[in-house]
Each structure stands twice: as structure tokens, then as C-alpha cells.
Specification:
The chain has 382 residues and is α+β, with helices and mostly antiparallel strands. Among the domains are: 64-102, no CATH class; 105-145, no CATH class; 150-262, Tetrahydropterin Synthase, Chain A, CATH 3.30.479.30; 271-336. It is 44% helix and 17% strand. The chain has ten helices and eleven strands. It has helices at 33-39, 62-77, 86-102, 163-166, 189-194, 199-216, 220-224, 228-246, 267-325, 327-343, and strands spanning 105-108, 112-118, 121-126, 129-132, 139-145, 150-154, 156-157, 160-161, 167-169, 175-186, 250-261. Strands 6, 9, 10 and 11 form a four-stranded antiparallel β-sheet that branches. A three-stranded antiparallel β-sheet has the order 3-2-5. Strand 9 and strand 10 (175-186) form a beta hairpin. The longest helix has 59 residues, at 267-325. The radius of gyration is 60 Å and the shape is rod-shaped. One of its GO terms (molecular function) is peptidase activity. Belongs to the band 7/mec-2 family. HflK subfamily. HflC and HflK may interact to form a multimeric complex. Residues 1-11 have a biased composition (Low complexity). Residues 1-64, 362-382 are annotated as: Disordered.
């Protein structure tokens, strides 16, 4: 059934502002129908049974927040008549003082020492745990690790050579290219901080000086081969004595020679000399071994001769005792034993001296005995 606006006067429903048949007024004259469609949410995300979306709520206003904070501070510090409350001021001062005093609390780790200074001057040293010092600017604290190993390289590192540091003169007036490292740590934090301006540079200078002194009184060949450990130990001891005289608060943990060679220009000749020395040492070892064998053989032969002589002497003494008891029998027995030894391996001809005819010896008597022919060997395949 068609809809009519009975309450309207004039022509049609133009400009009446009354709602249409679907609950919304008809569009005014001169406006596009699309404006009305844009004002009315359609179904979907913004419309439908849930209605239109609410606009995002604005965040807190900074000015309002500051105003409320100022109002609360005003209420805290003043009374209703605008007078300042002394108790509130005292509370603020006490809180600020407590915070200021709390800045003096400090904690020291087990591997550290803390040095407390008063107006920049040394006051005391504390160990691990909690401590307290008067707040700045009266006192200050500086912590130093006393267990961390520090390392200093002299002569170069990672293939980079520094000839000014590595070239040294040995005790036999040869030049050596030597690189080494020093491990050190702090053993007294107060001395470390106040007695030495630049600890790293000081330790490096002392290390270079000590190494030059020790190498300067040691020949080249021992430094290159067998005396490295001795040189390292002497350098560490010399460094420690010098740093103790400086009162530096530094402990030398060890010195390690990383590289020790002749200069590059003459390194081939030095290697030839070293090889010749090794060959000579090897030949000497072989000769000493042969000499030891000869000596042992001579000692064995001497012992054998002495024992044989002792045995013969004992045997002679026994024969002599028998000879004293029966001289004739003993002489006969000695004669027979001697003839047995002499005639055992010889051809013998027995002659009867009582005969009157001539004696003719057979010709085979003076011929040497022919050795037995070797046994024939069996041929293969027979």
C-alpha cells in the first residue's frame, strides 16, 4: 500500500524532516543520496544488529595529569589557607638526605679490592662484601680486580714484528730476534692506583729491560735451544724485584718466550751451524756407545783371565800338595797327562828300539789327513 505523509502540508514530503517508511527522513532537496547512505551504516563490520562502532577513546590528557599532580603537591605542602606546612618540608628534606646517604653503599666482588679516597687522598682498602663510604664529594671508591691475569706482548704479536723491541744482543755478541709475553696481576690495589701512573707501560718497559739484561749475559746457542726455561725464570725474578722497588703493587705470574731466532738475514747460516752441532752430538753419542761396549768387553776379558789364573793357581797348589806326599807317582801322572794332551790330535808312530834292523817309516805318516768329501746334494726332480 503506498505511503502518504498526512501531517505534511504543501507539496509532497520535500523538506518535511519526517521519517520515511523505513525510519529515516527522506533526503533533502539538492543533496546527493550518497550522503545519506554514508551517514547510515550498512550491515557488516560497522552496522547490523550490533550498531555503529564507537570512536576510539582519547588517551589521558597530559595537562590534566600535571594539574592534578600540582594540586596534590599543593595540598601536601600547604594548608587550606595557603601556608607552608613545616612537617611536609622536613619530610622532603629527610627523604633527600636519606637518598644522598644511601649513595655511599657499595659492594665488592670476591675477585676485587675497593680503594676508598677522602677528597682524592687514599683512605683505606676494603675486601669483598658490602661497604660504606661518605657520599660524594667527601669520599669516593674505586674497585680493582686482583685475580684477573693481564698479558703484555713484547717484540710483536700475530705475525707483526717490532724490531725495536725484539732485536737483542747476546752474551757472545750475537744478535737474536726474540718475542715474549708477560702475565701479571694486581696484588695491592692502593699501590697499583697511586704509585704507578701507567701500569701497563711500566710493566712492559721493565719486561723489555729485564729480558735484555738476562739475554745479554747468556750465549746465543743456549737461548735458542736448552736455556729457555732458565731465561724465563730469571727474567720473571728480575722483573718482580724491580717492580717491588717501584712499590707498584704488581705480581709477575710468568714469562713465556714465544719465538727466539737469529735475524732473518743470517737465519740460514745459523740453521746450518745448528744442524752441524746436532750431527756432531749424534756422532759423539755413537762414539761414546762404542767406547762403552769396548770397555765392557775389556772388563769381561779381565775378569775371565783373572778367574782362569786363580783356577790354575788353585789346581797347582792341589798338585803340589799331592807331589809332597808322593813325588814319584805325581811326576808319572803329570807326564802321562801331558803326553795325552800333546798326542791326542797327532799321528803317532811307535818304534821298538830293541830291534837291530833299519827303520822304514810308511809315507802316509807325514801326509795330512784328507778331509771327508762333502755329501752329494739331491737334485730337484729326481
Amino acid at each position: 500500500m503506498p505511503w502518504n505523509d498526512n501531517s505534511s502540508s504543501g507539496s509532497g514530503n520535500s523538506g518535511s524532516g519526517k521519517p520515511g517508511p523505513w525510519g529515516s527522513p527522506p533526503p533533502e532537496d539538492g543533496k546527493d543520496a550518497r550522503e545519506d547512505k554514508a551517514q547510515r551504516p550498512s550491515g557488516g563490520r560497522g552496522g547490523g544488529p550490533r550498531g555503529p562502532r564507537k570512536p576510539p577513546s582519547p588517551g589521558p590528557d597530559l595537562n590534566d595529569t600535571l594539574d592534578r599532580l600540582n594540586a596534590r603537591l599543593r595540598e601536601f605542602f600547604t594548608d587550606g589557607q595557603g601556608n607552608v606546612r613545616p612537617r611536609a618540608v622536613g619530610t622532603v628534606i629527610a627523604g633527600a638526605a636519606a637518598l644522598y646517604l644511601a649513595t655511599g653503599v657499595y659492594f665488592v666482588q670476591p675477585d676485587e679490592q675497593a680503594v676508598v679516597t677522602t677528597f682524592g687522598a687514599y683512605s683505606r682498602t676494603t675486601g669483598s662484601g658490602a661497604g660504606y663510604h661518605l657520599p660524594w664529594p667527601v669520599e669516593a671508591v674505586e674497585k680493582v680486580s686482583v685475580t684477573t691475569l693481564n698479558r703484555i706482548d713484547v717484540g710483536g704479536m700475530d705475525g707483526a714484528d717490532v724490531p725495536e723491541e725484539s732485536l737483542m744482543l747476546t752474551g757472545d755478541e750475537n744478535i737474536i730476534d726474540l718475542d715474549f709475553s708477560v702475565q701479571w696481576r694486581v696484588n695491592d690495589a692502593s699501590k697499583y692506583l697511586f704509585n704507578v701512573r701507567d701500569p701497563d707501560a711500566t710493566v712492559k718497559a721493565v719486561a723489555e729491560s729485564a729480558m735484555r739484561e738476562v739475554v745479554g749475559r747468556t750465549p746465543l746457542q743456549p737461548v735458542l735451544t736448552t736455556a729457555r726455561g732458565q731465561v724465563q725464570e730469571q727474567v720473571a725474578q728480575l722483573m718482580q724485584s724491580v717492580l717491588d722497588r717501584y712499590d707498584a703493587g704488581v705480581f709477575i705470574d710468568g714469562v713465556q718466550i714465544r719465538n727466539a731466532n737469529p735475524p732473518t738475514d743470517v737465519i740460514d747460516a745459523f740453521r746450518d751451524v745448528a744442524a752441524a752441532g746436532q750431527n756432531a752430538e749424534s756422532a759423539a753419542n755413537v762414539a761414546r756407545g762404542e767406547a762403552a761396549k769396548v770397555v765392557q768387553a775389556a772388563i769381561g776379558y779381565r775378569e775371565q783371565v783373572v778367574r782362569e789364573a786363580a783356577g790354575e793357581a788353585a789346581r797347582f797348589n792341589q798338585v803340589y800338595e799331592q807331589y809332597r806326599l808322593a813325588p814319584g807317582v805325581t811326576r808319572e801322572r803329570l807326564y802321562i797327562e801331558t803326553m795325552q794332551r800333546v798326542l791326542a790330535n797327532s799321528n803317532k808312530v811307535i818304534l821298538d828300539t830293541k830291534g837291530s834292523g833299519p827303520v822304514v817309516l810308511p809315507p802316509d805318516v807325514f801326509r795330512p789327513k784328507a778331509s771327508a768329501p762333502p755329501a752329494p746334494t739331491a737334485r730337484s726332480g729326481q
